[in-house]
Amino acid sequence: MKISTLADSSDQQCYEKKAPENALVIFGASGDLTQRKLLGSLYELFVRKLLPGGFFVIGCGRTELSDDGFRAKARQLLGDRKADQDDVNRFCDRLHYISGQYDDTRFYDTLREKLSQFDQKYSMHGSHIFYLAVPPQLFGTIIDGLGQAGLTCGEKEAHLCRSRLVIEKPFGHDLDSARQLNDKLHEHFNEAQIYRIDHYLGKETVQNILMFRFANSIFEPIWNRNYIDHVQVTIAESLGVEHRAGYYDKTGALRDMFQNHLLQILALVGMEPPVSFSADPIRDEKVKLLGAVRPFNADNIDKLLLRGQYGPGKLNGKNLAGYRDEQAVAENSNTETFVAAKLFIDNWRWHGVPFYVRTGKRLPRKLTEVAITFKKVPYSLFATAGIENLPANVLVFQIQPDEKISLSFQAKSPGSKLCIKTLDMDFDYEEVFQQTAPEAYQRLLLDCMIGDQTLFNRQDDVELAWKLVTPILEHWHSSNDTPFVYPACQGNLKPVDDFISQDGRSWRSL
Ligand code: BG6
Q1: What phi-psi label fits residue 328: left (phi over 0), alpha (psi between -120 and 50 degrees) or beta?
Q2: 261 and 115 in one domain?
Q3: 249 lines ligand 1 (CB under 6 A)
């Protein structure tokens, strides 16, 4: 069953802001993130005329590259997307590049000079956004370099200064290091200038969780322990660690996915209605929710968490290496590539409702979804006709690979025989809107330029997530237990099934 498309736009209420004057300085401009995500997203914003007239980019990197070299990389990337040549030329004219060492003060002097030169050239009177698309160990060096060159204002005068800082996770590797990082950031920027990216918050269907919950009146009354049996959040990937094994082996799935993406989704599903759709009210509610998650400790970790590591396997007839055989992974590595957890939220709304979450690499397919399973009917009217077990209604937000929302319900099949069938009422983003959902970075970059922090992590939110996760890391570190090994890209993993079936429930299929 499908939801019908709105034929005209009169039923649509839209709100889109254009970015005010600003320029973007990208550190790590010759790197992977810039090439894969940032340049393409900026280009889309440019074509949609959402960037200001004076907009320009200065790419910074340790790799020697001229402006033309940087533009050539952008052209190649945009050429692959079959972008319009005139648009590409106009966009590339705004790209500049400087190379140097991040610990060299002369590099920041050059940057300051270039900024002032281009501010004049493009009549740009707005803020400078510093985007650190670099490994986290460089954050401190770059922030100090910017501070010493007078490109930031320091915590006290920051309200006078319009510069902004964008950083990508990981924001530390445990609670202490996250606090140290925050202290470092606050030496030169105040919280209102810091944009911590969790790219999952930029995904359309993740944002749709908020619209769905708070723009409809029929779901909120049943969004609680009285009607909901349990919630499942899945982020499954079929890919392995690919070329990132060096980073991943020190990180693992708990830090890489659970501490951030999974907990952020959980917070959006579980939080109370904020007083308004703006940054701090929303972030306040997320923080309250994360603060209500029952803490993990040495006594409950083994019951509430399961970790695994992929072994060798097969996909479409092709042999896949096990995690320990991947390049740059220690041969006795105990790094987890899979985590399942059962969380409880100790508040009035959610008391007793388990939130099962799982994430892993080399699972049978890519799937990100949130499934809300409602309680079953208390008693089957149809028992006399032999139909005793009526499945529960399930509401699913599918975030990837396709963006969908569906609700399952029971209905009578046609005919004189009494048959009840589970049907899905679903809304498919692409089908209804006739377009694919935009890349998360478009939204995040635009929001940062506008100065809207709603979809960015706040300091307290990040620290709370680490507070929850750090005891697990410590426990795993000190215990002799090792992750269970699962064959790459195969379903029905017994320990994972047992983890939930002991509660009389089952995972949604992968
Ligand atoms: C990143 C993780 O944050 O998210 C990666 O570091 C993971 O390990 C990626 O592959 C998944 O993102 P997406 O958008 O492809 O689901």
Answers
A1: left
A2: no
A3: no
351 shares its domain with 488:
yes
CA–centroid distance, 85 to ligand 1, in Å, is: 31
In a shared domain, residues 237 and 331? yes
Q: Residues 96, 261, 475, 477: which is the catalytic one?
A: 261
The count of structural domains within the chain is 2
Length of the chain: 510
Residues 235 and 162 grouped into a single domain: no
pTM (predicted TM-score) = 0.93
Per residue in 435-454, pLDDT (tens digit) is 887 889 999 999 999 999 99
For the chain, what percentages of helix, strand and coil (3-state, to nearest 5) are there? Answer: 40, 20, 40
Alpha carbon nearest to ligand 1 atom 10, residue? 237
261 is catalytic: yes
User: Is 69 inside any structural domain?
Assistant: yes
DSSP for 109-151 reads HHHHHHHHHHHHHTT--SEEEEEE-S-GGGHHHHHHHHHHTT-
Cα(492) to centroid(ligand 1), Å: 23
Nearest-CA residue for ligand 1 atom 13 is 200
- What are 462-491's pLDDT values in tens digits? 999 999 999 999 999 998 889 999 999 998
Distance 510 CA to ligand 1 centre (A): 18
Instruction: Give residues with Cβ within 8 angstroms of 242, minimum separation 6.
Output: none
Task: Look at residue 157 in the predicted model and tell me its pLDDT.
Answer: 58
Whether residue 256 has its Cβ less than 6 Å from ligand 1: yes
- 308/334 Cα distance (integer angstroms): 9
- 237 within ligand 1 shell (Cβ under 6 A): yes
Range of the domain at 356: 205-375+455-497
